[in-house]
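Intended use. Records such as the Metal-dependent phosphohydrolase entry shown here are meant for training and evaluating sequence-to-structure methods. They are not intended to support clinical decisions.
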Amino acid sequence: MRSVPPWARVYVVCTALAAAFCAVPVPDTRAPWPAVALFAVLCAACELLAASRFAGDGGPEGAGASGEPGASLRWHTPVMLAAAFLLPPPAAALVPLPGALLARVEQRPRRLRRVWRAAQLALSTWAASKVHWSLGGRDAVVTSDFPYALVAAGAAVVAFCLVLTVLDGGILALAERVPVRAAWRGLFLRSLAPVAVHGLAGLMMAVLWRSPYGPAAALLVLLPMYVSWWVFAQYHRERAAHRATIRALVQAVDIKDGYTRGHSERVGQASMMIARELGMDDERAEVLRFAGILHDVGKLGVPTRLLRKDGPLTPEERRVIELHPEYGHEMVRGIGFLGEARSAILHHHERLDGSGYPYGLKGGQIPEFARVVAVADAFDAMTSTRSYRRARPVPVALEELERCAGAQFDPRMVEAFVRALVRQGWHPAVTADETPPHAEPHHPPAPRVPTDPDSGRRTDRAAGPDPRRGTVGGSGSGP
């Protein structure tokens, strides 16, 4: 079970209390309970149908305390917005609660995630209804006063997105430890387009709901939405197939070279930490994680006897092993979803001073993803226990990365990784047949981070790494 930080739990509780306060009926106001119940049942039915229809296809799982951006936006959103357009704010806040509390949640803690999602949707729907009613949107819907009805609905959609953005960013910062300056970046714009489409569907539902044909006609709006959600599910199924492809490749490398068992996942984890520290968007960060996981896939083309050789390599054997980035690039060339990850697989052994391989690129010639993976790869190699040496403590490994920054590694990537480790610590995934890399806690003391752009540059160059291991040379870690 993944633990949720205490401040994230407090945040969820406060959000739930705020949602409960907003759902309290206004005194001397008669709540339209039949409409509330009908909307709530319809919203819950859409929620449960989406879960049963799409969950097995790799579709999005219910949003939880992880705060994944946009995870709350599924195909019950038009129903919630239609309720916001027709019901008073406290009544509208009640509509998403049954579906959110009954929804299937795969990740733990399930109860906390359900409470978080229910509170998040209740507050967002309440805000949308409050803005819509304040602008007289309900009267515009009832009288079909266009285009003013579109104006009020548009303002309600913006309010819905803003509340989602604020809450999602907060839980990302507290539960996922995403840097505050990056937690809210791009969330609003990414959610605005889908919510705007859902808002139009919700407005159509609200207008038909108040028409002589009643709620039955409003349900027809969900039919074209169902088609679009089906397409969305196919997209997620394709992403699940991509992940399965990556797992198969990594498992093949693990079987061939026991050293890489667990190494690939940890390099992907470290690469993701650097990506978040650099403020990369979610899509690029995910591709960078793929790059870290697959950086050694080219070892499938290297003779096993060379990978498992105990002694030093001959020059000829070294040249053979140094072909593994090119082998890896050829293997993944046709996998389109990897994108920039392919260049990282090819160039993660390049060095800033041009002494790396396979092409001896220098400085900015080396792709950004490759410079990130190079730091993550070297760090995990140094901090993992192997048959030929014990793991180095995290602070020692960071000092080595800083020493080689400017010659072997990009100082910007090293500094980003240091900042991430100081804040989050290092909690690597450990495979079943591998002992933990460190006995001491993985929260290093704050190491020195060069502030002068040239302070990490040295005239001496680290000795060449063992191409089998990806270790940093110059202090006993090379061949």
